[in-house]
Amino acid sequence: MLGLKLATDPRWVNIVESNIEEILTDHAWCEQKAASNAISIVTYNSEIEELVTEMLVIAREELEHFQMVHDIIKQRGLTLGRERKDHYVNELFKFMKKDGSRRDALSDRLLFSAMIEARSCERFKVLSENIKDPELAKFYRDLMISEAGHYTTFLGFARKYQDNIDIDKRWKEWIEYEGSIITNYGKSETVHG
């Protein structure tokens, strides 16, 4: 369904399991950034009522996920560390088109968002199927389903609000680009790392 070029090696979970506190902290901050991204889309496109309504739903869900991860951190006696840079997302951001019409920029921002959700969904699936901790396996399975919903929402809105862009062609370009950079990741105990 996601069409990603490169699947995450399940052995990545061994790295994750070596530092659960780090993956949980990184994951919490990923959820906060996802909420901020949805709010940014609202800020720049406030005239599109349907989009604003759905982005507010996503922002709330992402903040709820942040709280869920934070609750797990507290229950385990761990500490929510400082915010981490997400080099993967920063590399994706560089690929986003920033010229053209406002609608073109919106479409590409939505594709950027869909790409992040697609990879997060895929990573959560790998975690849910391979992590030895049953609580975290269930947690990541539930979040995988949510991320898949966000992915389809962003992709659907990109198609709906495109101006002069062939969204299917541009999405393929995103898939190719993501495939070229993801080879640098999967080596650390972070969601995208």
UniProtKB/TrEMBL annotation:
Pfam families: MiaE. It comes from the Bacteria. Coiled coil: none annotated. This is tRNA-(Ms[2]io[6]A)-hydroxylase.
